[in-house]
Amino acid sequence: MLKNYTPGKLSAFFSQYQSLSFQKGETILRSEDSPQGVYYIKAGFVKLNTISVNGRERTFNIFKRGAYFPMMWAIAEIPNSYFYQAQTAVVIQRAPKKELLIFLKNNPDVLFELTRRILIGLDGLLNNIEYMFCGNSYHRVIGTLLLSAKRFGKVEADGEITIMLPLTHQDIADIAGISRETASLAINKLEKKKIITYKKRLIAIKNIETLEEELGLSKKEIKVPIAS
Fold first, then answer.
1. By residue range, what is the domain housing residue 86?
2. Number of other CB atoms surrounding residue 211 within 10 Å
3. 3-state secondary structure 1-15
4. What is the mean pLDDT of the chain?
């Protein structure tokens, strides 16, 4: 990371623009929409998904506070083809594309940080693809939990890792590419094995190494949490 990068610089830029609030489940941007600007997440979580011809939702990424989108459209001029939906209650600030591009060109440290975030997101996407080829639906759910721990995990004093993002069985199913019923069976199995537990609405992983072994990873590759 460039030494002169300060997170406040980006938030200060977006603070010039009006805040928009969305409730959980509300659509922020549709696949057929032409974006009206670049959206900065001030609070909450936003998921990027697509809907198949049979109506099934598939989640490719979840953005947290400090992320901004859709950058493929903003920088590469690739038309948006995805849905952006509020995973939780969300507060967003929307800046004009032209103004953001000028800001990024004048602040290479912020552009560097954006590149770092994009690469972290790509790593998560590739991991998810790898997990999908690891085996059955049970392994896909484990892969989803490992990825979520990597992105949103908080290490507790007792060594447990709490995923600081409320994930329903449907959310996990949408990430893993399986049905909710199948995801529920896998989650219940992990609970019975005492590998995971619930703390209110958050999933806690009792021991990350045990979860890795359940998937059959040959190496310890989970670093929790990734700074992003």
1. 7-120
2. 22
3. CCCCCCHHHHHHHHC
4. 88
Q: What's the rounded Cα separation, in Å, for the pair 50 and 177?
A: 11
Stated pTM of the model? 0.85
Helices 137-152 & 169-176, crossing angle to 10 degrees?
A: 100
Q: Are residues 115 and 139 in the same domain?
A: no
What is the pLDDT confidence band of residue 12, given thresholds at 50, 70 and 90?
very high
Nearest Cα residue to 84 out of 117, 132, 113, 51: 51
Q: Structural domain tally of the chain?
A: 2
Taking only the tens place, the pLDDT of each residue in 173-199 is 999 989 999 999 999 999 999 999 999
Residues 32, 114 within the same domain: yes
Residue 47 contacts residue 61 (beta carbons within 8 Å): yes
Shared domain for 193 and 108, answered yes or no, is: no
pLDDT at 223 over 90: no
Q: 120, 154, 183 — which closes off a domain?
A: 120
Give the tens place of pLDDT for each residue, 128-141.
Answer: 777 776 668 898 99
Same domain (yes/no): 56, 138: no
Which residue is associated with the tokens 């219940």? 188
